[in-house]
Amino acid sequence: MRQSWLVGVARHSILIAVAVMFLAPFGFVLLTSFMTSEQALTSDWWPSSWHPENFVTIFTQVPMLRYLGNTLMYSVLATLFMLLSSVPAAYALAKLRWRGSNATFVVIICMMMLPPQVVTVPLYLMWADVGLTGTLWPLILPMLAGDAFSIFLLRQFLLTIPADYLDAARIDGCGEWQVLLRVVLPMARPGIAATAIFQFFFTWNDYYGPLLYTSESQEYWTLSLALSQFKHLHHVEWNLVMAATVLVMAPVIIVFFFAQKAFVQGVTLTGVKG
């Protein structure tokens, strides 16, 4: 029994080493969150005394519930708006024949390669003209026009759906919207789930966008901006920063844990054909 266990460890030694490399930062953050401010980031990596009250302190020092609500509003609405616009666009690129579809797809690829900082100034001026700067709406409303990466990912997945199912639905008298809603969407659930998870993770962790548009409007801050609240003029309370970081990471980890099957299936099938 012991020999077989050692053989198993030897066979998976590389995977174990990689797993330790990935899990070590999470362990460091979790242990630091239970330390005192004086012990945090010292050579003592194990807490000399445990302080779970750090997780209560962050709610008394910073309005975390408000920032949590802002983050949820940003992530959920942006994800829903992205799906409403990107799914039909991906369907049109993957399953419909129309003049200019290939050129449109090339434009979408180019948009993926365009750094967001290139269009920051003109977009900020545009949203300032309509009076939406200082809120999260400049980050949410553009999702109604689609997201280049999401359209690309969904298109690649929809290409794996056999055209025979769509042709059969058309023969039965279904229009394109009916084909999309009744045939394509049920078959594309893994791809849609993977795309939604990608978008949700991005918006949940987004720092640049909220900093750009809400830096002077604290009531619209997200959790990523809230972490900077524990920095003082001459001191950073790293134990509270780590405690807040644990709470920020927890929802993302929970979502991925329950949706990992659909996520992995969607990402895997996306590259089957295209």
From TrEMBL:
Signal peptide: none annotated. Keywords: Cell membrane, Membrane, Transmembrane, Transmembrane helix, Transport. InterPro entries: MetI-like, MetI-like_sf. SUPFAM superfamilies: MetI-like. Residues 68-259 form the ABC transmembrane type-1 domain. The chain crosses the membrane at residues 12-35, 72-93, 105-127, 139-158, 179-202, 238-259. Gene3D superfamilies: MetI-like. CDD domains: TM_PBP2. It comes from the Bacteria. It is found in: Cell membrane. It is a multi-pass membrane protein. The keyword Hydrolase does not apply. PANTHER family: ABC TRANSPORTER PERMEASE PROTEIN MG189-RELATED, ABC TRANSPORTER PERMEASE PROTEIN MG189-RELATED-RELATED. Belongs to the binding-protein-dependent transport system permease family. This is Carbohydrate ABC transporter permease. The lineage of its organism: Bacteria, Bacillati, Actinomycetota, Actinomycetes, Pseudonocardiales.
